Structure to design on (161 residues):
């Protein structure tokens, strides 16, 4: 193996790390493919957010929004771990821009509160919702985790008022 690839792989096995690469694919509003050193591709799932699924309302618009931000760009991936699908879970930055947070602030993503407690995401979601930005402009947005559960035949969760 090339030394740079060994270094990258060693870095990715650490607790948390940062690497740089070019975005060569956008799967949906919260998943990208980054080409890193040694021509190694990594599937990156953006931390703290969840966007509508492709066949869900605003799913295509969330993907387009993310594509406009990152496709063809060099990004920094600040990652923590891999999920069960071997995707790298991380934060994406371009310079001082935090792409994960931008997606929530612009109304293309929900703050994934089940897995993240960062108040900046919660605040950004509240502001986007109040301003009816992005998916919040539509009638009765359904959170992607709820939509996925319903697609599998689950019953809707009724929240007490």
């Amino acid at each position: 193996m090339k030394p740079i690839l060994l270094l990258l792989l060693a870095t990715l096995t650490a607790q948390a790390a940062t690497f740089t690469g070019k975005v060569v694919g956008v799967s949906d509003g919260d998943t990208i493919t980054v080409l890193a050193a040694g021509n190694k591709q990594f599937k990156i799932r953006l931390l703290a957010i969840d966007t509508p699924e492709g066949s869900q309302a605003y799913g295509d618009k969330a993907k387009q929004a993310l594509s406009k931000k990152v496709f063809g760009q060099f990004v920094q991936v600040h990652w923590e771990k891999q999920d069960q699908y071997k995707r790298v879970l991380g934060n994406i930055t371009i310079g001082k821009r935090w792409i994960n947070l931008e997606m929530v602030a612009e109304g293309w993503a929900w703050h994934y509160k089940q897995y993240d407690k960062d108040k900046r995401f919660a605040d950004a979601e509240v502001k986007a919702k109040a301003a009816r930005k992005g998916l919040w402009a539509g009638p009765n947005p359904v959170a992607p985790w709820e939509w996925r559960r319903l697609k599998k035949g689950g019953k809707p969760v009724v929240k007490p008022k």
In short: Strands lie at 17-28, 31-36, 40-46, 49-50, 74-82, 88-94, 97-98, 110-111. The radius of gyration is 16 Å. The CA atoms of residues 148 and 154 lie 9 Å apart. The first strand starts at residue 17 and ends at 28.
